[in-house]
Known about the structure:
By secondary structure, the chain is of the alpha+beta class. Helices cover 24% and strands 38% of the residues. Strands 1, 2, 3, 4, 5, 6, 7 and 8 form an 8-stranded antiparallel sheet that branches. A hairpin with a 5-residue loop joins β3 (41-42) and β4.
Amino acid sequence: MTTDELSQDTVVTTLRDSRFVMLTTALPSGKLLSHPMTPQQVTDDADVWFFLSAAGDQADALRAGPEVNIAISEAGSWLSVAGHLEYVDDRAKRDELWDGQLESYFPGGKDDPDLRLVRVISDSAQYWGMPGGKVSALARITKAKVTGERAPGASGTVEL
């Protein structure tokens, strides 16, 4: 991917292809806090739906400020999506997105008192990476290290 290839569609595809992402929030003190999360849905607008617990540091941080970052990293590339989180009280959407595997985190199922449905409304995204996938990226990074050359790559930013 080159800088002029970064588009909303690329961001959406990358998010949809990621089983896990890191969701970063800021505590009132300014300390950043990141948690691995599983996106439940990514919209065509690059908004991301999650379930999270109403208890703990992450929930406290989100009550203090809704600004978040979603980060994805794999060999040779990373994507960083800035946005803001909103809590959504929508039983139909909760039912639509519920995955039985979530019961290990929410023993009360869809009616667990700590379960919250949230949507990250994406504002912008930054990308850095190398074309050709993971194997190609690892080969290029290794070659650059052996030869002393700078590793190839491109970066770009897109407003969402």
